[in-house]
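Minutes, project huddle
Topic: does the predicted pose make sense with uridine-5'-diphosphate-glucuronic acid bound?
PN asked that the exact inputs be recorded in the minutes so nobody has to dig through chat later. Recorded below.
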Amino acid sequence: MASPADTGKRRITVLGTGYLGTAHAACLASLGFEVLGVDVSAARIAALSRGELPFHEPGLGSLLRTGLASGRLSFSTSYPYAAAFGDVHFVCVGTPQRAGCYAADLSQLTGCIDALGPLLNRPCLVAGKSTVPVGTAADLAARLARLSPAGPACELAWNPEFLREGHAVADTLRPDRIVAGVPSARAEAILRGVYADPIRAGAPFLATDLATAELVKVAANAFLATKISFINAMAEVCEAAHADVMMLSEALGHDPRIGRAALRPGLGFGGGCLPKDIRAFMARAGELGVEPAVSFLREVDDINLRRRARMVDLARELAGGSFAGRNIGVLGVAFKPGSDDIRDSPALDVAATIHGLGASVRLFDPVAMSQARRAHPELSFADSAIEAVTGADVTLLLTEWQEFREADPEKLGAAVARRNIVDGRNALDAGRWRAAGWHYRALGRPLGHAGK
Ligand code: UGA
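Predicted holo structure (tokens), as shared on screen:
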């Protein structure tokens, strides 16, 4: 294998090794770059160095181990080492919601720049990938200019990431677009070099200013959240009008101007991105004096949270009007299938609420059990779907894992106390479950609908 110097490839550091950073590091190593992943958590760096992924992400574990074995991928907690190693530093640290308000907490980001900046004494590019309120990159560029001994030879770009959890490897290696907020032609050329392979494969490369690049990401997530809440608002109307939101969604999705993506009705969106990103967007718009421009996002958020409340109501209805003394079997805990992420998980929120209302709740998820147990030790946890629903008065499907979609209604029916199910993700074949004697209910669908 030629060294990066032979191939003209730059050495890359990735600061922050969560879903985004680890996927970015392992994918760039697979494209032939020498990559150093950096994190302040020594335990995380030790695990990654052993080839152990600290979270569930299909395909990423093997890419990590291949990268380590090739010698192109390594990990460290040392910022001085990172500064000496890298020509391009990708910043992938978290920007969670700040406690007690809507705004984003940028402390990891500023902490990273403050630690790295004073060590940057040769030409390099710092490229932010974290999702940030518009204007953050300009502030960080000024901060870097103050801190870095390399002065103008050390530039800051913004290169947002659009990967989805559960699809991180494919989305990183084959992005549908690459957006680069760049201060100079030199910075653009460096990023074009990093993404040479996906660009050759046809990914559009859009060079723009820092603010636009930051906004593209926030706007994309706001649009996706709006689309999901739109179809869930239609589900509310369908419930009142005895119409079927699944058929409605399918019919809408055939319109190429609307499209099928992000139009699946159900329990709504969760995770570490969409909920906090729309809230941070509202907070930032307020600071910019354009609050009304995005005030609809409050409605988007409210619709989303109302789906959780509706799910609890439906479950209570099937439980006979009260949760007291009832057993509820819950299938799914992760915020979506393919991930073990429970951040703002609608499933876990519903399960914990029902427990708080007096039911005995037993959960199962194929991958998110230990995270859920840590977050909600008061709930009870099963080793399988069958065990979770054994003796249940009501069964709730809250995360649409394939194994739940394919579950045998007869087999589960033999385990439960009563054949009541609420399909929170419109993922089951209603006809099949009804034929097996289940009282099947779903969000946004009429009581006796015949549909799938
Ligand atoms: C989202 C975006 O899709 C990515 O493009 C973005 O890069 C990422 O946030 C991020 O900012 O890092 P992700 O949170 O992994 O990705 O998940 P999605 O697949 O978008 O799903 C988000 C939530 O919406 C899940 O809870 C999912 O169950 C729900 N959803 C999604 C629906 O309820 N209906 C749909 O039709 C689609």
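Observations noted during the meeting:
- The domain at 224-442 is CATH 3.40.50.720 (Rossmann fold).
- The first helix runs from residue 4 to 7.
No decisions taken; revisit at the next huddle.
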